[in-house]
Amino acid sequence: MVCEETPRLGSRFKRKVCVTPEDREARRLRDQQEMQRMGGQATGCNSAAGAC
């Protein structure tokens, strides 16, 4: 198990999260894929398709 303290949104207190190295890597890959998916769907002032 790998444990680390992570910040809580809206609080100055941290929480301790413990996961296996495999779960940690799976989470990292899932987060990376989600960021890529969101980046490809950007609209608004900062995207090439968006107009302000």
Structural write-up:
With 52 residues, this protein is an alpha+beta fold. It is 38% helix and 23% strand. It is built from 1 helix and 2 strands. The chain has one helix at residues 21-40; strands spanning 2-7, 14-19. A two-stranded antiparallel sheet has the order 1-2. The model has no long low-confidence stretch (mean pLDDT 84).
Helices and strands, in N-to-C order?
Answer: EEH
Mean pLDDT: 84
Give the tally of β-strands.
2
Spatially, the strands of the biggest sheet line up as: 1-2
Counting DSSP H or I runs of 4 or more residues, the number of helices is 1
Low-confidence stretches: none
- Portion in helices: 25-40%
- Tell me the fraction of residues in β-strands, as a range: 15-25%
Our measurement of the CA-to-CA distance between the termini, rounded to an integer number of angstroms, reads 48 Å
Q: Tell me the structural class.
A: alpha+beta
Radius of gyration: 16 Å
Envelope shape? flat
| Major sheet summary line | 2 strands, antiparallel
